[in-house]
Amino acid sequence: MAQDDKLKKVIGHSKEYGFVFPSSEIYDGLSAAYDYGQLGVELKNNIKNYWWTAMVKMHENIVGLDASIFMHPTTWKASGHVDAFNDPLIDNKDSKKRYRADVLIEDYVAKIQAKIQKDVTKAKKRFGDAFNEEEFLSTNANCLRRSAEINSINERFKTAMNAEDLAGVKQLIEDLGIADPDTGSKNWTDVRQFNLMFKTELGAVSGDSGVIYLRPETAQGIFVNFLNVQKTGRMKIPFGIAQIGKAFRNEIIARQFIFRMREFEQMELQFFVKPGTQEKWYEYWKNARIQWHKALGLGEENYQFHDHVKMAHYADNAADIEFNFPMGFKELEGIHSRTDFDLRQHEEHSGKKLQYFDPEENKNYVPYVVETSIGLDRMFLAVLSASYNEEKLEGGNERTVLNIPPALAPVKAAILPLLKKDGLPEKAREILKELQFDFNCQYDEKDAIGRRYRRQDAIGTPYCITVDHQSLEDHTVTIRERDTMTQDRVAIADVHRIIGERVAFKNLFTQA
Ligand code: ATP
What we know:
The chain is α+β, with helices and mostly antiparallel strands.
């Protein structure tokens, strides 16, 4: 399936089956805002639960927090967001389209990278088992030339951005001959900075004194509560605070479905460490987070790390985990070594000490922080797009199936009486009652059984439990497995245990 096609299909499927709807659709929608439907909310909750289990439940030294979205406006002055949370934007004078200058340059670099990859794939085919990728990359003239070109572009971009030299960024775009991706026009405006925070006013006060922001990240709610949690929870460094919540950014261009929205949800961990140990913990969390992703079984080849060229104002080390979305490899999660920047800034702006007394060292210090930050909506899109499959079956039939990992599937089991009579519905409802307290289940008695299986495949239900006449005689049912479509006959008394074992989060953790 072509990648472009796939995104369209995933969007269509999401809407048709109640995963994601455009926001306020009866008014023709609102750009870059989406609503999660009856199945979407279940999948979203399961992803949250998988993250919370891995971060909070599985770590003795990590606790949760739910901070408010509105924060004292000085928070955002201290964090640097008022002055520096900008994206460089550029308009095309002919098409009147607006772009992020950094994204235009990154896309240009990605094209060169793709050419290198193409050469590698070709050489791999030619040399077979004898192929050594590292050696090829360090000796092949074409690859070396292209790598040098990438380095030089990245270096120029980084220097210009660090010096806030926006004319230099425009010059780079012109020197590279970058054109409007939609129209091919190279008639660009100057590059300008655009602050991404949403502003509003507090209560009845208007003017500057009442200005308040919708939080652009959940992290600051954790920093300002650092001592509250540390003291009341008697936490000892190293320890972490985890939070799931909404964040808001007035993105210049918000496209590609739920990948980039103006209102979205983040799952963030701030891990407080002793200064000097941040490198070790940064590596630890890079490794832990990639394991968390890979344990889902969506395909190891779908993940890659991308080290940042231009660091955010607060970081001394940063990498993204990129996922192979239908639009190509894009950022799914960021891992940042944030130093002591945030806590020190808050100390300075609030006049309050935000220090930890280390009993082992017998001294106070401001901890360093390693952050892991993942977009819940992007994770949702990753799961959905990797799970979406159209299959040709034996006998010429086709089915659309969502091979969602069972632990994340919105509906765990469907209970289906083979016929709508002879006491089968009653028996099926008995089983439903037994299961529904622990698992999200559906009961369906409409249409032929084959059509009901297809409906469940399309929403990713991993198990269909069918009640037939034999069930009434020997208290057994069949369990049909979504991916293999095989059916096993089992005792009704064992159904709860079997489903429980197969959909448990524990399975993911033992694989990791
Ligand atoms: P990008 O470069 O794509 O704008 P970012 O580097 O600004 O992302 P972070 O500030 O590191 O993103 O935010 C952490 C995570 O939050 C990202 O990895 C992403 O998954 C998610 N995220 C950020 N912006 C958005 C958005 N507009 N819509 C949905 N998710 C987002």
